[in-house]
Amino acid sequence: MTETLVQGIIHALSGTLSKEAIVFVISMIPILELRGALLVAGPVLGVPVAKAIPLCVLGNIIPVPFILLLITPIFTWLKGTKTFKPMVHRLEARAMSKSDQIEKYEFWGLVLFVGIPLPGTGAWTGSLIAALLGVKFRKAFPAVVLGICMATVIMWFISYVLLGGVHLLG
Fold first, then answer.
1. Would you tell me how many other CB atoms lie within 10 Å of the CB of residue 55?
2. How far apart (Å, rounded) are the C-alpha atoms in residues 120 and 117?
3. What average pLDDT does range 144-149 have in this prediction?
4. Rounded to 10 degrees, what is the CA torsion of 133, 135, 141, 146?
5. Which pLDDT value is given to residue 83?
6. Maximal CA-CA distance, the chain
7. What is residue 109's predicted lDDT score, i.e. its pLDDT?
8. 104: buried, middle or exposed (CB in 10 Å: 19+, 13-18, 0-12)?
C-alpha cells in the first residue's frame, strides 16, 4: 500500500514539481514522512544526499507545531459533530494504543518513538500522542525534532548506503 501511495504521488507530481520538491512534499505526508521521502530521494529519484536531508528534515518538522498546538482543539470541535465524531475517536484510540513508551519515559520515550523507524511511529503520530497526553510544547517539540534527527541518520544509512550504493556522504 505504501509503495503504491509513493508511486502515485511521484507520478502525480512529476513534470509539475522538481525531484527535490517531490521529496519535500513526501516528507510532510503522514505515514510516509521523512522515512519514505529519504527512501525515494536517493534510490528512486537520485536526489543527492546533501539536498535530500535538509528537505526531508524541514518537511517533516513543518507539521509538528501545528499538530502539537492545534490538534486537541480541532479534535474537540470535530467530536461535537455527528459526522466526524466516530473518526476522531478511532484516531485517538489508535494513537493512544501506542502511547505506553511516551507516557512512561515522556521526553526520551517521544524521541525514541519518533526516531526509530517502525510502522506506526514517526513525527505525526508522536506529536498526536504528545498532544493527547498533554505534554507541554516546550518539551514535546524538541523531543520530536531530536527524534526526526535520529530517524534521519537511520534512514540516510538505509537509503543512501545500503540501497543506494553510495559512499558515506556521496
1. 23
2. 9
3. 98
4. -80
5. 95
6. 54
7. 95
8. exposed
Spatial distance between the Cα atoms of 163 and 78, rounded to a whole number of angstroms: 42
Determine contact, residues 124/87, Cβ cutoff 8 Å: no
**What per-residue confidence (pLDDT) applies to 2?**
63
Give dist(CA 159, CA 39) in Å, integer.
Answer: 5
Task: Give φ, ψ of 165 to 5 degrees.
Answer: 65, 25
- The string of pLDDT tens digits covering residues 33-64 is 999 999 899 888 999 999 999 999 999 999 99
CB 45 within 8 A of CB 22: yes
What are the CB-based long-range contacts (under 8 Å, 24+) for 21-26? Answer: 23/47, 23/52, 23/55, 23/56, 23/59, 24/55, 24/56, 24/58, 24/59, 25/59, 26/59
Closest CA to 118 of 166, 96, 150: 150
Q: Which three cell numbers stand for residue 148?
A: 526526526
Q: Quick one: which of 157, 170, 122, 168 has its CA closest to 39?
A: 157
Percent of the chain with pLDDT strictly greater than 70:
94
**Is pLDDT at 167 greater than 90 in this prediction?**
no
